[in-house]
């Protein structure tokens, strides 16, 4: 199965790395220093219950270099959706599946407005990750899970094929019988989470104690 990962950050990078470990033909779309580090050193996941190291990955800034894929994992930030939907056109052929693992309940409406609904399968991801530095994903909790499925509730061949690829990569995955419900459950789950603490909070406190200038930060 040829899988293109559009958005190789915390979510796309983590699950893409696992899929690659399981033997799937994974191609990452990335840019900047993250892309260069992936080309030079591969992709790693640190601090999780199971460190992951993929020493060589297929990574490109241009979806056109990757070409038509069996499945596109759409994992860009929501505010990048409009531009990313245009960029993935070279990845989408007659039988390509697009599955969004973004947050939010409107994400699939954007997909079906840009592409034939037959290409779109619903998806939900649960994982606590971020890009720690170029080429390295930092996992901050043990949970990792994917739920995906057809919007009409059928158990399709493409969902089964993706499920098998996930299992080979050690991903806790399942085909959801009611993917719309799963998407709303994730939305409610996310809404109940506490606001994230600035990563530099501890560094700032330490800097104050040692009379160093506190670094700037953002959430």
Layout: helices, strands, pairs:
Layout: E1 2-6, H1 10-21, E2 25-29, H2 32-41, E3 43-46, E4 52-54, E5 58-60, H3 63-66, E6 71-74, H4 81-87, E7 97-100, H5 107-114, E8 120-133, E9 136-149, H6 157-168, E10 173-175, H7 179-191, H8 201-209
Parallel strand pairs: 1-2, 1-6, 2-5, 3-9, 6-7, 7-8, 9-10
Antiparallel strand pairs: 3-4, 8-9
Describe the structure.
With 219 residues, the chain is an alpha/beta fold. It has one domain (2-209): NAD(P)-binding Rossmann-like Domain (Rossmann fold). The chain has eight helices and ten strands. Strands 1, 2, 3, 4, 5, 6, 7, 8, 9 and 10 form a ten-stranded mixed sheet that branches. Helix 6 (157-168) links the parallel strand 9 (136-149) and strand 10. The chain is globular and about 40 Å long.
Primary descriptors:
single chain, 219 residues, alpha/beta, Rossmann fold, 10-stranded mixed β-sheet, 27% strand, globular, disordered C terminus
Q: Helices and strands: which structural class?
A: alpha/beta
Uncertain ranges: 198-219
- Helix and strand pattern: EHEHEEEHEHEHEEHEHH
Beta-strand portion reads 25-35%
Level-2 CATH architecture: 3-Layer(aba) Sandwich
Rg over CA atoms: 18 Å
